[in-house]
């Protein structure tokens, strides 16, 4: 029926798609997708390799026994372990199951999607000529991850955290678990990437420039607008830099807030954290993470950008 409708209405559709606003929309949409897809696919493959072939016990042995020291070590581990936020939640759950202190597992949960090599490389490509953005994203994300880990160590309670009962790939062979992880992450993260690219294209092509100009012209409002937008869009961290790079009317600091907040807390992450660690944990962890991410990204942006 859709094909038949397309054939019958081909002349009006052709006229609508040839309009300048639609040409602009499609140009931005295709540009974001073409730039982001290779990084998304590579990140998903590497994430599946780590999740399936690297035993969680490896991380427990590699971390210091003292929680205060384990937090920054776990946070820095995210810099060498590629993976998007969709993969970091189950990995963090596996770490808690294997006896890793929750503070360190949460630091890894926040840092891994934000400062791994794939994400930083994508950020460099999305912001050509702005190497400061890569450094600012790394510093701000690592600071937030460590601060949240130490905050949990200081104020967190055991009854707020409900450790997961079993790994999601239980009973599957390594090959089946690997391809299952790849299929899930590609479909899940790819769908959010499409939505993010569509919203970015709409902002560029449809929303009046003076509206965005008013928001972008106020330093405080622009940071809050893009931080909230990052939560609502729920874009995969391997692709969010290209969406942020297209929002050129906003300052680098506001776009840094978008890049720091998104991989740490958004709608899909809130749902995944609730399913993995419990509602009581998510209701406390998400608002604290959002607030701290906005504050730290604003401060780092003021200093480095």
UniProtKB/TrEMBL annotation:
It is a multi-pass membrane protein. Keywords: Cell membrane, Membrane, Transmembrane, Transmembrane helix. This is Permease. The chain crosses the membrane at residues 28-55, 67-91, 103-127, 134-152, 186-203, 215-235, 241-261, 281-304. Belongs to the UPF0718 family. The lineage of its organism: Bacteria, Bacillati, Actinomycetota, Actinomycetes, Kitasatosporales. GO terms for cellular component: plasma membrane. It comes from Streptomyces apricus. Pfam families: ArsP_1 (PF03773).
């Amino acid at each position: 029926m859709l094909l038949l409708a397309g054939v019958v209405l081909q002349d009006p559709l052709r006229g609508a798609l040839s309009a300048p606003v639609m040409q602009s929309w499609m140009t931005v949409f295709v540009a974001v997708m073409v730039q982001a897809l290779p990084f998304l696919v590579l990140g998903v493959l590497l994430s599946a390799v780590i999740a399936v072939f690297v035993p969680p016990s490896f991380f427990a042995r590699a971390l210091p026994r003292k929680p205060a020291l384990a937090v920054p070590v776990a946070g820095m581990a995210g810099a060498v372990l590629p993976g998007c936020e969709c993969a970091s939640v189950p990995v963090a759950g596996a770490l808690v199951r294997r006896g890793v202190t929750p503070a360190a597992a949460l630091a890894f949960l926040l840092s891994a999607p934000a400062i791994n090599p794939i994400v930083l490389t994508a950020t460099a490509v999305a912001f050509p000529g702005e190497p400061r953005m890569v450094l600012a994203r790394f510093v701000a994300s690592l600071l937030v991850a460590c601060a949240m880990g130490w905050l949990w160590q200081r104020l967190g309670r055991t009854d707020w955290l409900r450790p997961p009962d079993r790994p999601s790939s239980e009973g599957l062979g390594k090959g089946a678990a690997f391809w299952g992880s790849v299929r899930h992450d590609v479909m899940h993260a790819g769908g959010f990437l499409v939505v993010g690219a569509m919203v970015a294209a709409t902002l560029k092509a449809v929303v009046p420039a003076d509206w965005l100009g008013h928001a972008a012209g106020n330093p405080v409002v622009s940071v809050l607008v893009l931080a909230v937008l990052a939560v609502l869009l729920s874009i995969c961290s391997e692709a969010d830099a290209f969406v942020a790079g297209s929002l050129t009317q906003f300052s680098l600091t506001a776009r840094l807030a978008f890049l720091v907040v998104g991989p740490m807390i958004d709608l899909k992450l809130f749902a995944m954290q609730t399913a993995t660690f419990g509602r009581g944990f998510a209701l406390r962890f998400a608002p604290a993470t959002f607030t701290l991410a906005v504050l730290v990204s604003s401060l780092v942006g003021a200093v480095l950008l």
